[in-house]
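dumping this here so i dont lose it
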């Protein structure tokens, strides 16, 4: 696995996820480190983006979209979708040409890649990339990211994190790279809570 780590200046607007091949990006960090701001910078100017969250009180400045009809997929800008179990993923399979962000979805996304649900979700990721869909997974730590993402991740953006990666070593791909990255970022975050780095896979 070839990887290179580059510093990201979080005060600088990151490259827009448009006009190129689809990507799957993981963004992790403790509360208040700048994850949401970073995601907003990634998706604000995109033609079509949907933020999926289980929380009514988050991203509440965005218009809601339940994807009940085919017309609901023909929107522009950024909208929010409140996750519904046994509903959301089936509807998102009809999404194309845009970005889907899963924010704090640890209890919603499948955790076992070998289960029926896990295989179905991984196929959803594969199909989405063929339909020009970028995926963003946001969580407080690497251990909260579904292992179903790992085979397809292109970038991992890491802010300060507090989870113990060793406890989940058997489930984490790129363990050595991520542990080294976590140590380096946490050290830098002592002086700048908004510090982050990107591991390109």
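and the seq i came up w/
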């Amino acid at each position: 696995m070839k990887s290179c780590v580059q510093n990201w200046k979080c005060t600088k607007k990151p490259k827009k996820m448009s006009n190129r091949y689809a990507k799957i990006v993981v963004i992790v960090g403790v509360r208040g480190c700048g994850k949401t701001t970073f995601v907003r910078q990634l998706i604000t100017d995109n033609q079509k983006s949907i933020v999926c969250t289980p929380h009514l009180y988050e991203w509440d400045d965005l218009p809601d979209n339940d994807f009940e009809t085919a017309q609901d997929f023909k929107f522009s800008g950024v909208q929010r979708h409140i996750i519904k179990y046994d509903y959301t993923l089936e509807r998102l399979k009809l999404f194309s040409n845009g970005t889907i962000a899963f924010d704090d979805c640890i209890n919603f996304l499948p955790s076992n890649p070998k289960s029926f649900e896990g295989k179905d979700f991984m196929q959803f990721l594969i199909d989405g990339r063929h339909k020009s869909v970028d995926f963003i997974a946001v969580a407080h730590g690497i251990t909260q990211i579904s292992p179903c993402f790992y085979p397809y991740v292109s970038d991992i953006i890491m802010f300060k994190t507090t989870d113990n990666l060793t406890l989940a070593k058997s489930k984490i791909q790129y363990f050595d790279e991520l542990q080294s990255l976590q140590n380096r970022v946490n050290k830098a975050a002592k002086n700048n809570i908004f510090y982050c780095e990107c591991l390109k896979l």
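The chain has a mean pLDDT of 87.
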